[in-house]
Amino acid sequence: MTTDPLAAAGLVTRAVRSASRDGVPTKVALAHRTYPTDRADLWDALTDAERVARWFLPVTGDLRPGGRYQLQGNAGGVVERCEAPELLALTWEMGPLVSWLQVRLAADGGGTRLELTHEAPVDPASWEEFGPGAVGVGWDLALVGLGLHLAGGAALDPELAAAFPTTPEGVAFVERAAADWARAAVADGDEPGAAHAAAGRTTAFYTTVPEDAPAEAAGA
Fold this sequence. Notes:
Number of domains: 1
CATH class: Alpha Beta
Number of helices: 8
Distance between the termini: 17 Å
Radius of gyration: 17 Å
CATH topology: Alpha-D-Glucose-1,6-Bisphosphate, Chain A, domain 4
Strand order of the largest sheet: 1-2-8-7-6-5-4-3
Largest sheet: 8 strands, antiparallel
CATH superfamily: START domain
Strand content: 25-35%
């Protein structure tokens, strides 16, 4: 997917914030990246179902405010706000778990700055085990795919994209991204040792080759 994984990981600025929603403690993962395209093109890549399938996942449903969407094999939810070409807000629902995703676009020099925030209720056990990288690294990988799509327009090979984290380049990318998420968690008040240990477990989660994977997916 990318020939310079550390440079790709460095394109994203990451932060973590502690918050609350309806009196329930939450954690917010924030990721910023600027893409060399205008807002109209980036907005279209994020909201046109045919283009979303080229860099992320096939999506179905009513992609308007109040409508429900479903990503193939992943989350679904409700489109809460859709204000072209600036703001997209969704619920992010996986089984009984509900979190909230928001994407804002703003002009940034000759390109467009994408600001992604993902807010989720705090699960102490999950946070202790993986920290913000559990969700953050997943979005890091998606933002790489978006960048490749914007650069070339072609659809990504879903098998290659899925196997990328287990390649040497992918491992380097995930390690850098997970470490950056750990540093963001420490800046928000997490204990450094625990945060970096969680980053190590996140890295192992994303980079471990499944036992039933074909040899080529394992880099053989």
